[in-house]
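Record minuted for completeness.

…
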Amino acid sequence: MYDPHSPIKTPSTLQCTGDNGQWKGQQPRVVSFSYRRPECGTDNPALLWRYDTSEEEMQIPTSQIITIAPNLDNKRFCIVVSIPASSDLPSRIQSYIATGLPQEFLEDYQNGHGNSRERFPEHLSLEGSDVHIIVSRLSGTGLSIKEYESFLTEAFNILGIAFSIHHTDSTSFISTFASNALLPRAIEGRKQTVILLSGDGGISDLLNALRSAAKPTAFSHYMKPVVALLPAGTANALFHSLHPQAAHKFALRSIFTDIPQPLKYFSAAFSPGALYVTDEGRGSEPLSSSPSTPGHVFGAVVFSWGFHASLVADSDTAALRKYGKERFQRAALALLHPPDGKPPHAYRGRVSYLKNEDGPDEWVNMPEGEHAYVLVTLVSNLEESFTISPRSTPTSQNMFLLHFGPMSAAAVQDLMALAYQGGQHVYQPGVTYVPTRGVRIEFDEEVEGDEGARWRRVCVDGRIVSVPSGGWAEVRSMVGEPVVLDVLQPRE
């Protein structure tokens, strides 16, 4: 009988590959495997083995396993692992061919399929022309993107997974690719997978390009593309909200173990004349094709006005992006401590929200005319450890409003610090945190010109929208509306 508290041993063979994917030895070597399960009361579960000619015990920590895939004969298995950097070697991919692996080990780690005989999940079993890896050259610091691209492509090559790779060459690349390549095939009913090496803007670009088309889901054969996220941006809010317990080292594994689920999203409308802010604030693009009609944009992460939107906008410069997540802290300090020595800006406007109830719309007017923080979100985390909405979960359909009024710089910093403690800020006096189906803002800044425009900036999934003086913005949940994308999420 299997005893979960003792190692499982079975005679086996193992063949190891080198860093360049070539076999180190021509013949597999006989080994004796042991599997140290997580349930054994240890903090370092691992697959262990000894060669028949040696007493030295070798191991693969299970945290380093990307995937385990059976060969076509279903007797040999390919184990792909990521080896962290050491003092004399860089991080790298290593692979092994093994036979006679412990059954419990296979059940725990074989592509998340347990005893399944499938080599790969369906979204990785397509033709190479339908599995797209998109590498954003504009996200984050660029360091993690290079490593992810190298590891992912090498792992796919080892496993024989076909793919096409695309490098972005402009801010419009992903949107254009979605409209010209993904959309026509989706309408034809063709299955497609997109692996995004980008920040949250990448999924937003895909969503907007597909959802803004002429109702693609109205076509009877429309097949939703499946999107896999790798956290290669600065904050990676959607990835960390879908994988609340996952460190970056498990991101590659998630492509093999996660399953597709519909992507939740919202719609934001803006008064005529609203503009996208581009080129670090030096340029702009109209939201609407007509200056007399409202502009619309879709999002899956966050809609905000006030302190959050301002720090996102102010931090989006080449000079600050090189600092990674620290760029947000630098921008926040500048907003909280203006050079003129005055208190942080009080954002003027009228804010109301829709009750999260079925039936006719019932708007609740917030009594304050001045605000510090207005944020609407579908996700729990804006960064890996920054929990902005603790009641949001991957399976929840609720959108949440977080609001607080003007306060001192120290008080704002204290609230933000509590967000790093599991979202404790939402329980503090003066903070409104409620589920909602929609939020409307009517701007009332008294200052005109560039200074006034600075305080009428709205953030939608990292992109900045400038609203004209006297204008408005409104966000609505799109739960129950057509879904155009699936996103890979952990199994429940």
